[in-house]
Amino acid sequence: MVIVESIVLAVGIVVGYVLYPLVHRTRRAFDRAFRDQVLQDASEWLADKLEASVPRVREALGKMAETGAADPLLEKLQRVECIIEKLGPTSAERTVAVTLRGEESVKVGKVTVQVDWADLPSEIRKGFIRRPDKAQCFVIVERKGTAGA
User: For residue 43, with 0-12 CB atoms within 10 Å meaning exposed, 13-18 middle and 19 or more buried, which class applies?
Assistant: First the structure.
């Protein structure tokens, strides 16, 4: 009996060792896809305001999110944030808020979509389990030197 238990334990360890990296990569890809959709929503709103194509804005915004390097196209961009509010047990609302700095004013645009609970990254779902009554807000991109501005 001890041999069978040892074999089962060994198989479990090997399967875990093989599957963990795959699950971890899948989760990172899923979280990245969620972030990419947020950047796409922001790009679609920004393209009209910046008089540029959506793909061009998306490329510049993606680069800024990854490296912090600001493209001249985004010189007026101050901040992109994502607010998630839980609507019920199976859905949430994702709002992408984009702040542009103008010469005399600040312009804020919002894109709101309903998303399924299963489509939220695991860290966001965990946050709602810990604090179900609170919205979650994440800064996706912020121009350096503008915090609190």
Answer: buried
Segments making up each domain of the chain, as ranges: 2-142
89 three-class SS: coil
* Span 55-75, pLDDT tens digits: 999 999 999 988 888 899 999
Helices assigned H by DSSP within 51-146: 54-67, 122-130
Two structure tokens written together for 112: 């709101």
Phi, psi of 139 (to 5 degrees): -85, 120
Contact 43, 58 (CB under 8 A): yes
Query: pLDDT over 70 for what percent of the chain?
Result: 77
pLDDT at 60: 95
pTM of this structure: 0.73
Please give the DSSP secondary-structure letter assigned to residue 90: S
Q: What are phi and psi of 39, to 5 degrees?
A: -65, -35
